[in-house]
Design a protein that fits this description.
Elements (H helix, E strand, L loop, with lengths): L23 H16 L10 H8 L3 H13 L3 E4 L3 E4 L20 H25 L2 H20 L5 H13 L4 H9 L1 H4 L17 H12 L3 H34 L1
Antiparallel strand pairs: 1-2
Helix pairs in contact: 1-3, 2-3, 4-6, 4-9, 4-10, 5-6, 5-9, 9-10
Length: about 260
């Protein structure tokens, strides 16, 4: 007896939707990635103006603006009023976007949460930099360090931008591009430390000498020493935060008396 052939029937779930071609802003982002790659742009470099991009891509400036807004929300670019749009992280066509939700505000708890994140990043990046940095990388970090030291002495401790460039150089020479991308996405949050948090006017000054000792450990290819110096640097920042919190508490107590 011939057995009947059973045909399995699939019920298509309504969850599945038709596949659509990429939207225009996706196409613009792909074109921007190709431009950044072909031009060899790196974090910190400025992008062409919206007008120039729109003209070359044959789309409206609004479309370009919306595409750049998506990159800004993902921490890939920074828009500086009166200056332009700057690349904050490396971009490729096959990259995955991982937007971060970070604590905001200038209160003690938010700043401590930020510091805890930075402690882990700084320590591990210092280790990897000491293990992997080439002679050219060491020279690059030292160049940023000298600029930071010069700015610190010339402007009586006001060296936020140069300090940032030094740390970014360490992240960049770690050999892991994710470090640089994550730290770039946190740029604005970390810079709150330099805006007199909790009323500490000399915030960060105590960390100054540890930038040199951190560099020395990296240059000596000493990962254990590099981690130790990075942790010492962050410890001084934590002390400043606690000092500021104590001062603020005293001020609030006096105002209530």
């Amino acid at each position: 007896m011939v057995q009947p052939i059973l045909v399995k029937r699939f019920v298509i779930s309504p969850i599945l939707s038709p596949v659509h071609t990429p939207s225009r802003d996706d196409a613009v982002l792909h074109a921007l990635v190709d431009f950044v790659t072909s031009e060899g742009l790196r974090p910190g470099d400025r992008l062409p103006t919206e007008r120039v991009l729109a003209e070359h891509l044959k789309v409206s400036r609004t479309t370009v603006r919306e595409a750049l807004t998506r990159w800004q929300e993902l921490g890939l670019v920074e828009r500086r009023q009166g200056s332009g749009t700057y690349l904050k992280a490396a971009v490729t066509r096959n990259m995955l976007h991982l937007p971060l939700t970070l604590p905001s505000g200038n209160d003690f708890n938010s700043l401590m949460h930020t510091l805890e994140i930075r402690r882990g990043l700084e320590a591990e990046a210092a280790v990897l930099s000491a293990e992997r940095a080439s002679d050219a990388d060491i020279a690059f970090i030292e160049q940023k360090l000298i600029k930071m030291e010069d700015a610190f002495h010339a402007r009586h401790g006001m060296s936020a931008d140069e300090d940032w460039d030094f740390h970014l150089a360490v992240f960049r020479t770690s050999g892991n591009p994710l470090f640089e991308q994550i730290i770039a996405a946190m740029y604005e949050m970390f810079h709150r430390f330099w805006e007199h948090p909790l009323g500490v006017r000399d915030f960060g000054h105590a960390s100054f000498p540890y930038h040199r000792t951190l560099f020395n450990a990296i240059a000596a290819r000493d990962p254990i020493g590099a981690r130790a110096e990075a942790l010492k640097l962050i410890a001084t920042v934590e002390d400043d935060l606690k000092r500021g919190a104590a001062n603020l508490k005293k001020q609030n107590k006096k105002s209530q008396e």
